[in-house]
Specification:
The protein is of the alpha/beta class. 44% of the residues lie in helices and 26% in strands. It has a single domain, classed as Trna Endonuclease, Chain: A, domain 1. Strand 1 and strand 2 form a beta hairpin. The radius of gyration is 18 Å and the shape is globular.
Length: 119
Amino acid sequence: MIQQILLVAVLFAPPPVKKDEAYWRDHFAPKYQADTDFRIPGTRRHCDLVTRTEAIEIDWETKHYEGLGQALSYGLALGRKPALLLLDRGREKDRWRIKDAEDVCRRYCITLYVEEVPE
């Protein structure tokens, strides 16, 4: 009987939510008081989060180099301060990436946010 109940529970459980960058963009938008997926006029590019003063690119810590370039590009295109929000999965092997992003952001006046998220 218990096995049948467990089987029914598994069969009718909702599928797990894929927590990709779009999920985290929507999750963090209220915290940063930002508009989401903001289209840059005259282009096909979209900035993840846009506030009154910042253009925020969201990326996983493993894609910090890509995120830095996009943050600079979006900030320039929108006339806002560039910012990068790194999604940190808490993996020790990726700590150097966050440190590297901190150094680059400090040098080029990019605001860096780091948010811990589950794996």
